[in-house]
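Duplicate of #3305? Posting structure anyway:
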């Protein structure tokens, strides 16, 4: 359970970490979303996070601890609807001054934290865009989607680059090596590309579909959430390209749930689950340390603060965002008047758009082609398609 750098230890006695080091205390339930909340993303500074809901609303939050007053201050910074169709991916710039979104409207967009306005759009994709990441000191973004194209776009508007890959489900970056990890959409493969040569370095092959992924801060490990049938987390060593550990316990039969590294030294793993719980594993031992309950519907995603190992945040189909800590705090929720006004406008707009088609929230995962013999002159073909919710 060791989850803090500040814990006092002595050579004179055996050291034992208690389970109160895991953030299991819900200090605040945020209810500003009006639909299922599908994803959460922490900025690298740990002071800002974004939540994305099924109705395509993005809320940017700030979180600050004031230990001397035992207060956690949570404030809304931005609320916007960056796309009319489903948002499939989100990425923070390393500086925290910008963020990127990608969508079923075939675009990748970059937004300014200062103005809340779109400052760059890539509209060259031919189908839904599922993955995005910043690259090259935030001077570029990389986007990929169903059209099997990877775009490297320069944010100054000058000519970028493009190369062919597979149907993209997500992207992860290793800046120092100029390596890009491409997770195949509804597939069983992760391909590592050299961005300088646009060639494949290596590939990871799974036996079951890959549903989500996370990369460790040191870029040495990849965590894959695999299989609807036999849900597992797989930990891959990217130096040796070897599967080194497997984790089980969470429920995942119909919907995507996301799993992440986290805690002190990223020595833990956390995952959402279809049983409305959060699962936490010891990364090295592989055992489930804690099953955190509090949500009333599927927990779609969790995120551990990259700078505060005692803070964990979860999002759920119950429309809520929950903030968890190792102890109870007094929470002050601050909503900026301008943001509050924009929220009211967005909610009014959302009500007007209720009749918009929902085809972007599902996607085909399997096809069965049947040919029914009738006569020598007529042949009827039927394609049966099964769907699962995309998050």
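Output from current build:
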């Amino acid at each position: 359970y060791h989850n803090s750098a500040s814990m006092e230890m002595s050579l004179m006695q055996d050291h034992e970490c208690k389970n109160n080091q895991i953030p299991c205390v819900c200090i605040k339930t945020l209810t500003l979303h009006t639909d299922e909340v599908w994803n959460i993303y922490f900025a690298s500074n740990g002071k800002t996070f974004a939540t994305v809901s099924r109705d395509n609303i993005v809320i940017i939050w700030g979180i600050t601890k004031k230990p001397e007053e035992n207060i956690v201050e949570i404030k809304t910074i931005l609320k916007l609807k960056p796309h009319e169709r489903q948002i499939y991916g989100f990425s923070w710039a390393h500086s925290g001054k910008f963020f990127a979104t990608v969508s079923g409207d075939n675009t990748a967009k970059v937004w300014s934290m200062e103005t809340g306005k779109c400052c760059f759009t890539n509209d060259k994709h031919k189908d839904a865009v599922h993955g995005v990441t910043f690259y090259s000191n935030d001077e570029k973004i990389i986007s990929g989607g169903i059209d099997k194209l990877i775009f490297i776009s320069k944010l100054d508007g000058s000519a970028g680059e493009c190369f062919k890959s597979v149907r993209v489900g997500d992207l992860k970056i290793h800046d120092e090596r100029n390596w890009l990890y491409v997770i195949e959409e509804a597939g069983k493969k992760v391909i590592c590309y050299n961005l300088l040569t646009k060639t494949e370095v290596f590939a990871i092959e799974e036996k079951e579909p890959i549903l989500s992924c996370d990369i460790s801060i040191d870029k040495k490990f990849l965590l894959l959430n695999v299989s609807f049938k036999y849900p597992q987390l797989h930990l891959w060593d990217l130096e040796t390209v070897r599967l080194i550990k497997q984790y089980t316990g969470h429920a995942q039969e119909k919907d995507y749930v996301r799993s992440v590294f986290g805690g002190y030294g990223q020595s833990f793993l956390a995952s959402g689950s279809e049983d409305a719980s959060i699962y936490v594993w010891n990364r090295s031992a592989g055992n489930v340390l804690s099953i955190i309950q509090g949500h009333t519907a599927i927990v779609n995603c969790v995120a551990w603060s990259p700078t505060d190992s005692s803070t964990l945040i979860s999002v759920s189909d119950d429309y809520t965002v929950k903030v968890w800590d190792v102890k109870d705090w007094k929470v002050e929720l601050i909503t900026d008047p301008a943001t509050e006004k924009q929220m009211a406008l967005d909610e009014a707009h959302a009500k007007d758009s209720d009749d918009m088609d929902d085809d972007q929230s599902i996607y085909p995962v399997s096809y069965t082609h049947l040919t029914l013999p009738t006569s020598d002159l007529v042949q009827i073909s039927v394609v049966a398609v099964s769907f699962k919710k995309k998050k």
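Confirmed duplicate; merging threads. The helical segments are 337-352. Residues 239 and 365 are 31 Å apart (CA to CA).
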